[in-house]
């Protein structure tokens, strides 16, 4: 299924590790260059700004090819060619991705443009083809299938993100098709589905044999955490009830099951935080902080109990207490999530040890120790030796 050479994928992982070691001071730039020269690798781009530039260039190239085909087609055919042309544009996108993959392009920017262009044009083509009996679920299904295939074949991380959104859209549009009942139970269904997929991806990560899919599964796992919290957040549920069901919440009233949504909004960020500290999960820790901030926003949006100055002061005190608790919890941890300085430091001892490891791995011979004309074996040189005489 993977179009890329697995040896190059393995080399790319080794090069990434070498860059991490170089950034942490374990190896020098010269040693990293030796590693990169000795390992064949993809035509990739690690600089995000340069990658965005190549993405814009690839988008211009893709749109230019599609524009030429559109001009030729519209000059001799009817307007019905528009529906067919979108499928042609999608084929061009995936054909360009295959061509770039054969030229060892991976995470470069050019391949991003053709892969995403193919998925986008396929979705537009399905929208045009189903406009007479249009339901949003049909384009969402096609986009979800195309994006997951693109991830599995090209190991394209953005395609996994597109799949997560498209799969969520399939769920939402499917519940809309049921009617008011589906719209009513949508928060609970989204909560159960996201929770189920979270544990599914968690198990897949634990038993993953091919490391190439790790980042994609980790992205999907994190997306499920976010969707789980947002599915039953009080602000999200109440605003969607107004939009989808036309529920008018009068003063003194509230939405159905409001106590559950209140409790969910408060408890889930706390559970995320405790679980992140317990398992040393840094991504879940970031998500818990974002969820706590959104919980505070939710309450402030509907209930302004205190002036903004008092609310900020109390919030600062609460965050200080959380920080103190976190420091006490993590200060004695030696691995994982810890309050101690990062082990990737410019420590001379660690640097020398890692240098020896890298040198032995690359076959670099250590320097020959020269014999000094001055004898430092005893204690006769102003007490500087190992002997006991001064």
Task: Give an account of the 3D structure.
The protein has 390 residues and is an all-alpha fold. It is built from 14 helices and no strands. α1 (6-24) runs antiparallel to α2, α8 packs antiparallel against α9 (214-231) and α9 packs parallel to α12 (282-302). The chain is flat, with a radius of gyration of 29 Å. Keywords: Membrane, Transmembrane, Transmembrane helix.
Write the layout of secondary structure elements.
Blueprint: H1 6-24, H2 29-38, H3 48-76, H4 81-102, H5 110-129, H6 137-154, H7 157-178, H8 180-206, H9 214-231, H10 234-245, H11 258-279, H12 282-302, H13 308-330, H14 348-362
Q: Any descriptors?
A:
mainly alpha; flat; Membrane protein DUF2157; 390 residues; 71% helix; 14 helices; transmembrane helix; membrane
Helix amount, in percent?
over 70%
Coarse shape: flat
Q: What structural category do the secondary elements indicate?
A: mainly alpha
Number of helices: 14
H/E element order: HHHHHHHHHHHHHH
Measured by DSSP, the beta-strand proportion falls in under 5%
- Compute the CA-based radius of gyration: 29 Å
Protein name: Membrane protein DUF2157
Organism: Flavobacterium ginsengiterrae
Transmembrane segments: 48-72, 84-101, 113-130, 136-155, 160-178, 184-200, 212-237, 257-274, 283-302, 308-327
Keywords: Membrane, Transmembrane, Transmembrane helix
Gist of the model:
The chain has 14 helices and no strands.
């Amino acid at each position: 299924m993977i179009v890329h050479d697995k040896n190059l994928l393995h080399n790319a992982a080794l090069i990434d590790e070498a860059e991490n070691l170089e950034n942490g001071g374990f190896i020098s730039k010269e040693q990293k260059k030796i590693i990169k020269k000795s390992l064949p690798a993809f035509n990739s781009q690690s600089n995000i700004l340069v990658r965005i530039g190549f993405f814009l260039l690839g988008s211009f190239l893709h749109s230019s090819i599609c524009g030429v085909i559109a001009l030729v087609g519209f000059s001799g055919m009817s307007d019905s060619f528009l529906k067919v042309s979108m499928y042609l544009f999608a084929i061009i996108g995936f054909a360009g991705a295959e061509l770039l993959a054969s030229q060892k392009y991976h995470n470069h920017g050019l391949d991003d443009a053709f892969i995403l262009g193919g998925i986008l044009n396929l979705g537009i083509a399905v929208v045009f083809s189903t406009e007479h009996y249009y339901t949003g679920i049909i384009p969402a299904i096609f986009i979800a299938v195309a994006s997951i295939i693109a991830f599995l074949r090209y190991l394209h991380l953005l395609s996994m993100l597109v799949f997560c959104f498209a799969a969520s859209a399939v769920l939402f549009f499917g519940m809309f098709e049921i009617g008011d009942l589906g719209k009513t139970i949508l928060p609970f269904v989204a909560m159960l589905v996201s929770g189920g997929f979270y544990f599914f991806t968690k198990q897949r990560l634990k038993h993953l044999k091919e490391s190439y899919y790790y980042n994609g599964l980790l992205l999907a796992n994190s997306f499920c955490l976010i969707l789980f919290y947002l599915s039953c957040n009080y602000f999200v549920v109440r605003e969607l009830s107004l939009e989808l069901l036309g529920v008018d919440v009068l003063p003194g009233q509230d939405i159905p099951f409001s106590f559950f949504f209140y409790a969910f909004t408060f408890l889930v960020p706390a559970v995320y935080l405790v679980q992140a500290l317990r398992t040393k999960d840094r991504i879940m820790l970031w998500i818990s902080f974002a969820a706590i901030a959104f919980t505070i926003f939710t309450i402030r949006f509907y209930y302004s109990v205190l002036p903004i100055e008092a609310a900020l002061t109390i919030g600062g005190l609460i965050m200080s207490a959380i920080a103190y608790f976190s420091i006490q919890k993590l200060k004695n941890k030696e691995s994982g999530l810890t309050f101690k300085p990062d082990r990737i430091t410019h420590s001379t001892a660690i640097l020398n040890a890692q240098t020896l490891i890298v040198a032995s791995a690359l076959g670099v011979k250590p320097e020959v120790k020269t014999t000094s004309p001055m004898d430092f074996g005893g204690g006769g040189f102003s007490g500087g030796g190992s002997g006991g005489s001064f």
